[in-house]
Structure formats: C-alpha cells, structure tokens
Amino acid sequence: MLRYRAREEALSAAVKKECDAEEEHYGRLPDRSVPCTTFEERQFGDLVTSDIARDFPCTVVSLALFDGDMMLYACSGIPLPHGRSKLELTRYVTSACLATEYISKRYRDDKLRIEVCLPNGQKVDGFLELYNRHVAIVTSLGEQNVHSVDVELQAVLPSSDGEMLAAGRAFRLLVDLPTAQERLNVWKPVGSYEGGPVAVLGGPVLGEDKRIIGMNIDFGHDGPRDIAYVSFLPLTLLCRYLKRFRILNPEEIHFRGYLLPSGVHTIVHSGSMKRINRIKHYGYPMPPPLVLQFNGELCNTFEECFGESLAWKGYPFNVRCCTNQGVWMQLRKDVVKDISRRVVSIASFHGYERYFVCTGLLIKWHRRTVVLTSASLVRSCSNDEEIDNALKIEVFLPPKQRASGKLEFYNLNYNIAIVSVEKKFISICPEDIFKKDSTRKLSRKVVAVGRESRKGLLIASTGEVKRSDKDCKLDCKDLKLSTCKIKKAGIGGPLISFDGSFVGMNFFDRRMLTPFLPRSKIVQVLGSKISLSLPSERPTTCFNERGPARCCGCSGRSFV
User: What average pLDDT is seen over the chain?
Assistant: First the structure.
C-alpha cells in the first residue's frame, strides 16, 4: 500500500512539474486579486405578458455568467437554426459583451460557467463558442423547444421617424422586458435607457411590422447631455457574420486542419487550459471550438501505444498492455536486453514546441554510434522535398539518458536519416547492420518495436512478412510489408526476427499492414558513405543523398 501511494505521488509530482513548465511558457491566468461582486439586473420598459410574447417572431432567452453560484453578468440571446451540426445542439447569438465580461472575469481558480434560461424557466448549461467584435455564440446540448430566428429574412428597416421595439429577458424575473422608442435608426441613438439595462443586449429589435430587423449589441453615450443609447446590428450583417462563423453554412466542418475564420475568436475555458497547453507543446493543431468541452479526443497521436509494453528496470508504475500477444515472453532474454539498450525515442523541436517524435535504432556507422530513424523527423512540413534546418533534435534512452542530436545524413527518397548523439550514452548495445552473415535468411515471423516518447516504455507487436499485396498502392518497389500493427510511435523503429536479427525499418500508413524498408536497401544506401569520420566532422555539416527514384510511399507527412 505504501509503495502504491509513493508511486501515485511520484506520478502526480511529475505531471504537475510538466504542467507548471507549460504554464510558465504559454502564460498563466492571473490570481484572483479582489472578490467578484454580484451582478444586479435592472428592468427597462414595460413587462410583456405571455400572450404577447407568443406572438414574437422568435424566442428570447436569458444568458447568465456565473462564477460558482455568483451571477457576474446577464444579457439576452436569440436562438439560431440548428444548421449542419451532426450533434443535437441549440445555438444562441448574443452580444459580444458577454465574451468581454467572460474574459475579464477569468482567474486561475475561477469556476466560470454560463446558464441559459428558457421562457418556461428551465435552465440549461451553455458554452461560449465563438465571438468577434460584435456578436458571440453560446451553445447548449440538446435541441431545446425554442423558436429560432430566420436570419436570412430580408427585413426592411423603418424610416427615421418609424417606431422600433427592443426586447430582452431577465434571468431571474422570467419576464420579457421591452421598450418602444421613436426616431431610431442603425447605429444611431435609440433613446435613453437609464442605468444601462444589460438585459436588452443580445435581444431582438423589431420594426413596425413586428419583424426582426436586428439585434442589440452595445451601449454608448452621445451628445452634450451624455444620453445613453443602444447600438443594434442589422439582420443582414448578422447573417453575414453567422455565415463567416460557419454556423449557417450547410457544409460539414472537418476537424483535421481546422482554422478559425478571419476575425473570429474562441475562448479557452479555464478547465481546458492545461490540455490546450499540452496540445501546443506537443505541436498538435488546435481543436475546433467546444471539442474539448464535449469530451473530444485527439486521434492518431504520437503518444498512442501499440502491441505490448515493456517497462525499463526500476520503472515505478504499472504497465498496461494493448494486446495479449505475449510478445516479450516469446523473445529470448538476451534479445530483449539488447533491444532495450539500442532502441531510443527521438524527437525534433521548434523552440519549445515539439515538431515530430518517433523511434530510432542505435547502430554503428563511421566507427561511431548513431541513430538510424525516419527522415520525417526533419522533413519540412511546407515542402516535403526539403528538410527543416531550424529543428533541434533530442534523443532519449530510459531511464534518464537524454542528449541533443545532430543530423548527419538524410535521404528523402528512402526516408532515411542518421543522427549523431552529442553526449556519449552508457550501457548501450548498438546494432551492426553492416555485419555480413551468410546463414541469415529473411524471417517470415517478425516483431515491430517502438519506444514510447513520454515514459520510455518499449512497445512491440508481432506479425509476418507479406510476400505480396495486390491492394498495395505504394510505387516504391523496395518497400516490403508486414502484418505487424503499429501506431505513429513505431515510425523509424526496427523490424526484427525472433532471434533478434535486424530485418528493416518501419513506416506507418494508417492501414492494417506496416510498410518497412528492408535491411539490404538501408545497407546499400548507407554503406557507400562509410569513412573514418562523420559528415559533421568534415567541412560539409550534413550529407544529403538523392536516390535514383522517389519512394512515394516513404515520403511526405501523410505517410511516415
């Protein structure tokens, strides 16, 4: 029991240390300086009876911002059509003042949340999704029984002497609060609202024919008497904003490569800050709005393990296995020992942010110990015909050996890279892939090996070498295939036989089969470059060899 508690405390301390470092780099929310004060709603205009409210062209809801149980702000909102979302959601458009208040009230220990109050008094949770300088979108789960606004309706603005009606809903009074004003126009004073009743913001503006012509978005003051007025957004401009937000667009949003539209922002909720910092640190794209709030997860990450895991000696935590293959039990002890001393995790970084991470194999080359791995480690994301020279490389051999790496050689056609290690590692057993063995035959049963990047666990899965594959679309004749199932963590890792012999280097293409470059081709590419010194020890810092033909399957960011 004491040992288990010590392990849990050690894990908690390690996670906190990593989170603190990320927070230090990306910035942290301020500590609470003064306690927040409770927001007081103020009435304006005349109360509306339920009979009159039923004749409104849309439902009006109240949106309230809370820190725990304390109300900090409340305004109105208008339901939007359900649009193209596959989930059962209800969206409300409101004034961007709600987003401004949310941002200004954020602290490290806040418990900010939004509640939506419906006309029948029911309250549901809301999430602040998108906003720009005028409007904000609040989303709640489930399709609520509300009448949405037809934002594409071409409403006609009243004349300068026409009458308009501004409506809002109080959060706790559960009534509609309208007021009639005369001589109103777009972006012009709409009369004096004493005390600036916030409930009107986000509410609809109705014309003489009781059709919606816009939405109230902000307060202002004008004239020598400092008269308060409310600015409203015309329905045509609101419709344009919603299309830019992709709220009204019929096409489906693809999460891969999602980017916020120009001029549109999203709020990282306080409870998601640590996850967002981790996503940034690991170099993954930012998720679309509300994906984390709705328990979305990143797919195909470099942290996903495969097969069966094996911990290094002294590892203090329990190890979970992805399969019941019993891979490590099938290998001789000396083979497992050698693998653990020559398979490393290798990562490249742009400053603090990780760019790529995969597995590498310590081999003998130029009478030195270097790392053989995939050239995807250093391949440019903007041009897969080039490498990114600005990347920094780090090599990790558990439990505590870490060192900077230097790119010595790469061949983008065969997706091969050689990295030297600046600090000498101890207790290693580099593979001699150039050693000739006339008795060696290509083994049919093989093991794909990788090294998990965070904790340094060895991971492996078994399979067989396939002689041919009619469905294979790769146009590189030198690539072979195995039935070993791996994840991205296995990129650049060795494929070995059950006696420990090196068979080839693994790649990953998201299929059930795993392509690999055979040992013979690797030896052919690297063998002609053997000399007494490394490329970095000569005038040329790194040697690039262009092969006779491109292995299309081995290059690019989609196949690594």
Answer: 82
**Identity of the amino acid at 335:** V
- Residue spans of alpha helices (H) in 268-394: 273-281, 327-330, 333-340
Contact (Cβ atoms closer than 8 angstroms) between residue 432 and residue 456: no
What does the alpha-carbon distance between residue 106 and residue 292 come to, in Å, rounded to a whole number?
18
How far apart (Å, rounded) are the C-alpha atoms in residues 204 and 437?
82
Provide the H-helix boundaries in 63-139.
97-104
pLDDT band at 436 (very low <50, low <70, confident <90, very high): confident
What's at 549, amino acid-wise? Answer: A
Averaged pLDDT for residues 137-147: 90
For residue 486, give both structure tokens: 């791996």
Q: Where are the beta strands (DSSP E) in 50-150?
A: 61-67, 70-79, 89-95, 112-117, 123-131, 135-141
Rounded-to-integer distance, Cα 438 and Cα 101, Å: 75
Q: Which residues of 527-544 are buried (b: 16+ CB within 10 A; e: fewer)?
A: eeeeeeebbeeeeeebbe
DSSP sequence for 369-400: EEEEEEGGGTB-SS-TTSB-TT-EEEEEETTT
Torsion angle, CA of 195/197/202/205, rounded to 10 degrees?
-90
Q: Which two tokens stand for residue 474?
A: 């790769």
pLDDT of residue 548: 42
pLDDT tens-digit map of 501-512: 999 999 998 777
Give me the pLDDT at residue 253, please.
Answer: 58
CA atoms within 13 A on the CB side of 183: 4
Task: Identify the DSSP state of 57.
Answer: S
Sequence-distant (6+) residues with CB within 8 A of 193 are 44, 179, 200, 219, 228, 229, 230
523: helix, strand or coil: helix
Closest of 413, 312, 303 to residue 354, by C-alpha: 303
Span between the terminal Cα atoms of the chain, in Å: 44
What's the average model confidence in pLDDT over 472-490? Answer: 83
Q: Across-strand partners of 401?
A: 397
Give per-residue pLDDT as tens, 13-69: 878 888 889 988 988 888 877 777 888 877 666 676 665 666 677 888 999 999 989
Would you say 206 and 167 are in contact if contact means Cβ atoms under 8 Å apart? yes
Q: Nearest Cα to 105, choosing from 32, 15, 22, 214?
A: 32
* pLDDT tens sequence across 268-281: 887 788 889 999 99
Res 540 pLDDT > 60 = no
